[in-house]
Amino acid sequence: ITITIRMEAPDHETLQAVETFFLNREETVV
Q1: Domain span holding position 7
Q2: Neighbours of 14 (CB within 10 A)
Q3: How many domains does the chain have?
């Protein structure tokens, strides 16, 4: 899974999606 984040324009939705992705990943690993 590749996540591309535009550093020049970090939208709130993109940051939220990334946070959700990592949270889901942690829950899945645990």
Answers
A1: 1-30
A2: 14
A3: 1
